[in-house]
Each structure stands twice: as structure tokens, then as C-alpha cells.
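#structure-requests
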Amino acid sequence: MLKIGSALTLEVLSGKKEILRCKLHDKVNGGLLVDYPTSEDSGRTVFLQNGTELLVTFITEQDEVYRFKTVVKGKRKNNIPMVVLEEPKQENITKIQRRQFVRIDTSNDIAIHSLQGEFDAFATVTENVSGGGAAIVVPNHVQIVPGLEVMIWLSLPYQDGSIEHLNLNAEIVRVEEQKNNKKIASLKFDKLDDMNQQKLMRFCFEAQIQQKKQGLIE
């Protein structure tokens, strides 16, 4: 599950709240050897004191998100300086479920197609995205109502620069007109397979990390 070479995201739990990134280089005698982490804010190397408590998150090759708590145990000099983290027991590594991801305010490209021809296809942007649905901005010339079944193409840009385009079926569950005359439709994704679900979870996880860094969420 946790493989050599895995990219790790570290959240400092004590003292100053920081988001750090590092890579797992080795496992030795109950310890995880990682390179010195860099700050998500400044890009600078961060020197962690022994005893620092951390929340570690990583994403597998299957885009599954896992999390565990650890503590800094010491330093080690190999070819490059290493930080030694306490290796968690397997049962203490928790898989993050879709319901644990909040709705993320984000403006992603999305295309909407009617499955029954009730309206012409249109392109727009999201207001927010979650593991189970999305809210979209409805152009003024488009007339849609709750209950319609649609097919969507949703763009998911990841932090590593890659972009996934998900092709999903969805149902329009609500259409609301806001005070600024902007019309918002809420979509519920239908019959998500595991692969697309994991891609959505990865996007939401990375977005949550960015919002924590910006102080938008706790």
C-alpha cells in the first residue's frame, strides 16, 4: 500500500499549522525514511524537531487516498539527509471515504448533454464539486428543470499538472436563481464506478489541502 517512492503530504499537528510535501525513500526497522520536507507555501526546506506530530496522507497508484498519524523519531544521513518517521501499523492506516470530502468551491470546465434531447448541449463551469455531485452555472439561454438525466464531461486538474476528463451520467436535482440573476443547477452523479470515484476523491483531497493552506477551511 505505502510504497517506496510514494509522495507524502504532511500536516503538522502541533504548533504552527503547515502543509509539507516529501517522498518516501526507504523503510528501516519500523521507521519511514523520507527526504527533508518542503513547505507548500514557500517551497523551502522545513526542519522538523524530534517528537513533532504529523498527519500523513498519500495517494496510491489506484488513486485511493489513505491517511495515518505519525511522529518524527530522528534524522539519518544517507546519500541525502533523511527524516525518520514512525512507521504506522497497517490497521492504523485509514482509507478516506468519499463522504469525508466536503463540497469544494471550484470553477472547473464542464460540458452538459441531454440524454433525451430536451436541450442543446452546452459548456459552462462548476460552482462546486464533491465526491457525489456538482453545482454548475446555467447560461441564460438554457432552459433545464429538475429530474432531467444528462451526460457530462468534467475536467479535473490535479496539482501535478495532469488533467482528467470524466464522462459521467448525472441527474439534475435542483435549479435555483440567485440574487445576482445567476442560475445554478445541482447535479447528482449516477452510478459512479470505482475508477471515476477515486479520481473525484483525489481531486477533492488535493483541493482540500490547497484550501487548508490558504486558511479557507480548518
